[in-house]
Structure formats: C-alpha cells, structure tokens
C-alpha cells in the first residue's frame, strides 16, 4: 500500500528529495548541490544533464533513507 508522498525540490544551489508519511512527518531525505553557471550578472544557468543526474541520486537516496521502495509512494510533487 502506498503510505508515503515524496517531494522533489529543484533549487538554485541544490536538488533535494523528501519522503513524508500520512501525518506530514519527514521519513527520509537526501540533498545534492549542483554547479551554478553564471554567464552574466543576475543570470544563473544549470546543466540539464547534471539536474537529471542529481534528481535520480537524491530520489534513490531519500527512498533508502526512509527505508521504502518507490512503490510505497502514493504521489510525488515537484517544485
């Protein structure tokens, strides 16, 4: 039964994934920083391949930290 929800947060400096139970308590989490590319003042770019790699790594790590499998997630939100 899917008793948990996951959240992927793609931020300016890092990618993180958190697993929550039905009461909103954090059951697992993982975070990895990524390179910021600053081509001009006020601009920030990221390498899409790195974002995908970091997302895969943090989802895997967060699930491991929570001690669950992907099938235990009812939903995943992305911000």
Sheet having the most strands: 4 strands, mixed
Mean pLDDT reading: 96
Question: What overall geometry do the principal axes of the alpha carbons give?
Answer: elongated
Cα distance, first to last residue? 25 Å
Order of SSEs: EEEHE
Number of separate helices = 1
Structural class: alpha+beta
- Say how many strands there are: 4
Task: Describe the strand arrangement of the main beta sheet, using strand numbers.
Answer: 3-2-1-4
The fraction of residues in strands falls at 35-45%
Low-confidence stretches: none
Helix content: 10-25%
Radius of gyration (Å): 14 Å
Describe this entry's structure for a reader.
This protein is an alpha+beta fold. The chain has a domain at 35-79. The protein is built from one helix and four strands, in the order E-E-E-H-E. The protein has a four-stranded mixed beta sheet, covered by helices on one side. The chain is elongated, with a radius of gyration of 14 Å. The model has no long low-confidence stretch (mean pLDDT 96).
Produce the secondary structure layout.
Layout: E1 4-10, E2 14-20, E3 26-33, H1 48-66, E4 73-78
Parallel strand pairs: 1-4
Antiparallel strand pairs: 1-2, 2-3
Give a short overview.
The protein has one helix spanning 48-66; strands at 4-10, 14-20, 26-33, 73-78. The protein has 79 residues and is an alpha+beta fold.
Keyword list:
79 residues; alpha+beta; 1 helix; 24% helix; 35% strand; elongated
């Amino acid at each position: 039964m899917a008793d948990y929800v996951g959240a992927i947060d793609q931020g300016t400096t890092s990618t993180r994934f958190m697993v929550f139970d039905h009461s909103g308590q954090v059951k697992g989490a993982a975070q990895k920083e990524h390179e910021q590319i600053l081509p001009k003042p006020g601009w920030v770019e990221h390498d899409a391949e790195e974002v995908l790699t970091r997302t895969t790594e943090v989802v895997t790590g967060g699930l491991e930290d929570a001690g669950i499998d992907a099938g235990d997630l009812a939903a995943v939100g992305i911000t």
